[in-house]
UniProtKB/TrEMBL annotation:
Record's keyword terms, sorted: Transport
Residue ranges constituting the Cytosolic fatty-acid binding proteins domain according to the UniProt record: 15-32
Superkingdom: Eukaryota
PROSITE patterns linked: FABP
Family according to the record: Belongs to the calycin superfamily. Fatty-acid binding protein (FABP) family.
Designated name of the protein: Fatty acid-binding protein, intestinal
A single MF term (Gene Ontology): lipid binding
Short name of any one Pfam family annotated for the protein: Lipocalin
Transmembrane segments: none
């Protein structure tokens, strides 16, 4: 099945976002084996995201008290990424309706990490679950300064069944 995805589908995710609250984050990190000092620091990392899009390519700029990085990816294309604690992941983001869905695997032990980003009631909600069967949620407030709308079509045709099966 070939599915054309509208540029309006993910446009709500584009822009500048700042974490305004997190749910279950400390327990989530504890189950991952993160020590108490790092958990306490992470609870106050002041994370900000800027999400922009050019065709099928997304750029996510993460800035926090502890690091700033830029992640560039294409929907459905596998890439490597390091978490703030140094854990290396390999996986891809896909689109399911109005959600961006990330399916990643730790490189060192092949454990899974799944993430979903969507806008709910004007907030970007990022839910994540890991191999520990523990989940966490970050809620982001939209900030001023939206990126410029891309001039190219937002998404080429995607084989949705292929992306959902991987």
């Amino acid at each position: 099945t070939v599915c054309w995805l509208s540029s309006l589908t993910t446009m709500a995710l584009l822009g500048n976002w700042k974490v305004n609250r997190s749910e279950n984050y400390d327990m989530f990190m504890e189950k991952m084996g993160v020590n108490m000092v790092k958990r306490k620091l992470a609870a106050h990392d002041n994370l900000k995201l800027t999400i922009s899009q050019d065709g099928n390519k997304f750029t996510v700029k993460e800035s926090s008290t502890f690091r700033s990085i830029e992640i560039v990816f294409e929907l459905g294309v596998t890439f490597n990424y390091n978490l703030a604690d140094g854990t290396e992941l390999c996986g891809a983001w896909t689109q399911e309706g109005e959600k961006l869905v990330g399916k990643f695997t730790r490189v060192d032990n092949e454990k899974e990490l799944n993430a979903v980003r969507e806008v709910v009631n004007g907030e970007m909600v990022q839910m994540g679950s890991r191999w520990t069967q523990t989940s966490k949620t970050h809620c982001y407030t939209h900030l001023r300064g939206l990126p410029k709308k891309p001039s190219t079509p937002a998404f080429p045709p995607l084989l949705m069944d292929h992306h959902l099966a991987t």
